[in-house]
Amino acid sequence: MQLEKVSGETPEQRLSALSLELPPVPEAVADYVTHTQIGSMIYTSGMLPWVAGELKFAGKMGAELTLEQGYKAFQLSALNGLSLLKSITGDLSKIKRVHRLEGTGGATPDFFDMPLALNGASHLINTVFGEKGAHTRMIYSNPSMPINCATLLVFWVEVE
């Protein structure tokens, strides 16, 4: 399920080469901010798999959702994170390095492929940013997720 290598000088050009568009900038769903910045580091809140407030992937992997759907849900969560980051920086090229992704996925107790599902986000970030996208990551599994979302993704990025 790995994304193909694409050409393009900027992250936006690489997204376009993948025929992917950034969704509208996600808004907070409760009483919190979508990100915080300390110096050159930006930390996002959890990015969900939705477009314009409509949840595209709901339920648990291993029950309502397959591994492939979990992969796509994490990819959409990553696109939402990129949309937010672009709104903060004005240009994804200003991202100096993606340091960490933390993913949480809704899953049944016997679903053991969460790392493969999180690859939906990792493959996208690595393809879009190249060496600047090489990141550490952590994956969590939850039997219950906020608003029944399938995935939630947090970014730690360094900007110029």
Tell me about this structure.
With 160 residues, the chain is of the alpha+beta class. The chain has one domain: 60s Ribosomal Protein L30, Chain: A, CATH 3.30.1330.40. It is built from three helices and seven strands. Strand 3 (50-51) and strand 4 (54-55) form a beta hairpin. The protein is globular, with a radius of gyration of 15 Å. The termini are far apart. The mean pLDDT is 95.
Kindly report the name of the CATH homologous superfamily.
Answer: RutC-like
- Supply Rg: 15 Å
Give the neighbour order of strands across the main sheet: 1-2-7-5-6
Taking the alpha carbons of the first and last residues, their distance comes to: 32 Å
On the 0 to 100 scale, the average pLDDT is: 95
Per DSSP, the total helix count is 3
Order of helix and strand elements from N to C terminus: HEEEEHEHEE
Q: Write down the CATH topology.
A: 60s Ribosomal Protein L30, Chain: A
Number of strands: 7
Uncertain stretches of 5 or more adjacent residues: none
The profile of the biggest β sheet is: 5 strands, mixed
CATH architecture: 2-Layer Sandwich
Q: How many distinct folded domains?
A: 1
The global form is: globular
The helicity comes to 25-40%
By secondary-structure content and strand pairing, the structural class works out as: alpha+beta
How large is the share of residues in beta strands?
A: 25-35%
What's the arrangement of secondary structure elements?
Elements: H1 11-17, E1 35-38, E2 41-44, E3 50-51, E4 54-55, H2 67-89, E5 95-106, H3 114-129, E6 136-142, E7 151-159
Parallel strand pairs: 5-6
Antiparallel strand pairs: 1-2, 2-7, 3-4, 5-7
Helix pairs in contact: 2-3
